[in-house]
What we know:
The complex is a heterodimer.
Chain A: H1 3-25, H2 27-55, E1 59-69, E2 72-80, H3 82-105, H4 112-130, H5 135-153, H6 160-191, H7 196-202, E3 210-213, E4 216-219, H8 220-235, H9 244-247, H10 253-262, H11 267-274, H12 276-279, H13 283-304, H14 310-330, H15 334-361, H16 379-393, H17 399-413, H18 417-445, H19 464-489, H20 493-498, H21 515-538, H22 540-549, H23 551-558, H24 563-594, H25 596-605, H26 607-615, H27 617-638
Antiparallel strand pairs in A: 1-2, 3-4
Helix pairs in contact in A: 1-2, 1-4, 2-3, 2-4, 3-4, 3-10, 3-15, 3-19, 4-5, 5-6, 6-8, 8-11, 8-13, 10-15, 11-15, 13-14, 13-18, 14-15, 14-17, 14-18, 15-16, 15-17, 15-19, 16-18, 16-19, 17-18, 17-19, 18-21, 21-22, 24-25
Chain B: H1 5-22, H2 28-52, E1 61-69, E2 73-79, H3 84-100, H4 109-128, H5 132-141, H6 143-153, H7 158-187, H8 192-198, H9 202-219, H10 228-235, H11 238-263, H12 265-291, H13 296-315, H14 320-351, H15 362-365, H16 367-381, H17 387-402, H18 404-429, H19 446-464, H20 467-495
Antiparallel strand pairs in B: 1-2
Amino acid sequence: MDIEYLIIFLPLLGSIISGLLGKYIGSRNSEIITSLFVSISAILSFIIFYKVLNQDYTNNLNIFTWINSGTLNVSWSIDIDALSSVMLVVVTLVSSLVHIYSIGYMSDDPHKQRFMSYLSLFTFSMLMLVTSDNFLQLFFGWEGVGLCSYFLIGFWFRKESANAAAIKAFVVNRVGDFGFALGIFLIFYLFGTVNYDEVFELVPSILNNDLSFLGINVNAINLICVLLFIGAMGKSAQIFLHTWLPDAMEGPTPVSALIHAATMVTAGVFLVVRCSPIFEYSPLALNLVTIIGMSTAFFAATIALVQDDIKKIIAYSTCSQLGYMFFAAGVGAYNVAMFHLFTHAFFKALLFLGSGSVIHSFKNEQNINVMGGVWKKLPYTWALMVIGTLALTGFPFFSGFYSKDAIIEFAYLSGSATGYFAAGIGIFTAFLTSIYSWRLMFKTFHGNYNNKNIDSSSMHESPLIMIIPLIILAIGAIFSGFLFKDLFIGVESSENFWKDSIFFLEPLSSDHPPLWFIVFTPILVILSIPTAYYFFIINKKFTNEIVKGNLPLYNFLKNKWYFDEIYEYLFVKPSKKIGLYFWKKIDLRFIDRFGPDGISSLIKIISSIAVKFQNGFIYHYAFVMLLGFSALLTFLILK
Amino acid sequence: MDFPILSSLILLPILGAIFIFFSKSNNNLTIKYLALFVSFANFILSLYLWYLFDTTTSEFQFLEERSWIKGFINYKVGVDGISILFIILTTFITPLCVVSVNDTIKNRLKDFLVAILIMESLMIGVFCSLDLVVFYLFFEGGLIPMFLIIGIWGGEKRVYSAFKFFLYTLLGSVLMLVAIISIYWMTGTTDVTYLYNIGIDAKYQNLLWLAFFSSFAVKTPMWPVHTWLPDAHVEAPTAGSVLLAAILLKMAGYGFIRFSIGLFPIASEYFVPLVYFLSLVAIIYTSLVALMQEDMKKLIAYSSVAHMGFVTLGIFTITQQGLEGSIYQMISHGLVSAALFLSVGVLYERIHTRLINNYGGLVSIMPKYAIIFMIFTLGAVGLPGTSGFVGEFLILMGAFKKSFLVATIASLGVILAAAYMLWLYKRIIFGIVINEKLNKLKDLSKTELFILSSLAFPIIFFGFYPEPILNTTEVSIKYLIEMYNNNINLNLIENK
Lengths: 639, 496
């Protein structure tokens, strides 16, 4: 038996055991079983990754037929190539660490079994997503992870805000899925198949196909890419479809680390990279990807600057970093996008779990204004989060340095106007990133202790079971960039590692940008640390004055560019109003009034009969009729 | 002649019903076991039918023919890949209905079970009759037990609802009867297979199509003749709602495939835009209406209209995916809507209210219920991995082939479905317990758990492995589409 089966189905098995039998085997056993299964899955994933790396291993397993209708023929499958092996490692590694961390983090929760079951189910769905060999199974995984995200955001079901956030996440994602599904329909319409290999092979043959979509003549390839990208925007929380991600922070923190930072939200990036054989033929879509990516990177960073909720800051940061990945993909540097996805998984999961440790210590307080000065009380958490922050901001020789700077460099090298612009925005956003990250760190750990509810002497470090996963992630956050840089984005990486899994129409530029350009970003990043220290620790008054002087801008950022309000006004309220109007006015006032009620009011005129209806006589007649009818039928058939 | 398996399927419940009706026993339990035995035996028999069924041919199988009125009407029954699954759905749902009947039916339990069993017979008759007159009798006969179930055992406004139901459906059917009679005058036969072969004159097809359509549209129900359904559901007892949603509505969808498309291909082609339009309105309009409902049963009833909108859309794409998807969607909706109505029934029996506002926070009081209700909610949302997904997705794929615009608008319904179902679920299951009475609720009993899991299992199973269903329908639908296209092409040549 191939070990791929174990990788994929162990988490599912763990989920079923913990979910259905959890009550009988107890919470501790559930935790052990799920964590163990996912950890085995992670170890096996490393074996696969190793084989792909050194032995050119690929595999395509057909489990069994799923849908077979006419020319549509889709199977459940496990497909291993370089791209999916990288995702396997990321997903199972972060997932197993989050499983273990959760044992500590959720120790006071009465529903541990349910929580572990959801986490494992999520892992299974995510693995189905990344190992699919066709668009339909991808969609299955896509919706599956969305569902688990829904469950986990709303995990604390007594909180009204958590429930609202869960539904919002699901429905906003469905808007993206709407585009994604149309993209799949279009692929099936044009190619008669939804299997990657067959589709990708046929793409060059329809480059010049135009079709009329909603009255507009468009190129078929462009349309496919744009529709698929809408799906990617929903899942990866890109601007316009991002509103669910900050709200999703209502879920327990381990969930934010696993789903809303390291894995699920990167599925959109994965989709674009997986579809590189289509996107490469659509300059229009690639430009769109770049523009959306860089807009998201920028706008999310501006919002993160002024938020006070520790998790929301990191959530906007995730949004922003996903934007970076997209604009890497948009300029054709898919491998660089994957590289940033890879390193980001480590440092962002680290930051989230670290913030979870802080929240844990502050007894579920998330506002950074009422923290501060605890770095000596929480030394491990502090040190680990410093590592995460250094990696995120791209401090030299930490992992983010290699991946983020590569993105900016490739944008610059792409030579197009969009590319230059994106590079410029990328540098500025890197600076913003650094400012808001250090703001978070300083306000949380340094300065004065600001919490009146909790005595500072009762502060204590989180248990070891929560710290160890953080240490492993920190190792990744420090070294993953340096160690894997050549493999992922080296000059030969396309031939040596990615091979057929990523398609480059033209080989990526192997030039280097000028030296001043290369050192510019790191210098900004380094300088931003004292800058942030000055603004948020030394001279807070000055900062407050700046805020007062620019109150409209501050409010604009504080209120997240008013996206939620606009959507509420444009979509949510009108839908409800229209629904109510259709029901009360059209259904009841119009159709019923002139239809059946009109006729029956005629009948009611003969009201003396109507009285008898209620006596049940009419039912006797009807009953006799029915029996007679049946008897007749019986007679006829038996005759 | 072989063992007349189809007639046995039709007769067995009737004989059971007659036996129960004349039995002297007044012990409710005995009667219930008797009805259960009969309906379950019928289910086993139908599975045997499926086992014997040959999926490689589009011919009608298990044909039986007896002359009824000499030279005029023949009792003719048979099944193909299109109809057989509906028979199995019927025989599967009925025993579950019987099991679900409990103390809430206080008076005349005996009559209630008789009505359910006769209803089963009539429904099976609808799906296997191959003569228009016989079909009509079964089709309209099905009205009577439903009328009784709502009218006698319904809620407060049962009389209004029962008559609304009766009026709507009867008015539509009268036109169909006229059409059947005219077909007889034109061709001298009402034998469906024979009519398939000789075809119906193109110039009469439009009128005949409209006559059939008026009947099927009401029963589907399509917008704007859907308003009887929410009322009927709200007033009907649980078992009645289940039969209505799971099986009765499917008669119309089946009728569209067998008769509208089969007998009047040229008219069908002509009216495709009309059907698309009404289907899209049904999907979007009723989804929005569903969003605003305060009564659980009404919400599910409106969602049924939206789901059936997908079915009519899929049927008239006349593509392999669209038609297979429609049948799939009907089977799936049969399971999911039955499950949803049973779930609502579970709550209603406990505290006698269907208003969503009266609930909240059930997850901590009824955890088993919360899990299983989630499965059904997801089935209704059409999440991949549930049977709801396969049907909807295939329909949309088929629709996309015919018109981007139609498929795009229909896909919007998928977003709305998520919104209204999850919101419903949230309001009932999550949140804090605001209603004191809820704290005393008991979780699912063993019987309830059994019924609901028997529905949950196929919903998930067919989500992952739809082959048994798709395989059964494939050849018959392929043949139907071929026949349809031949007719259209012939007509085009003639017109030139």
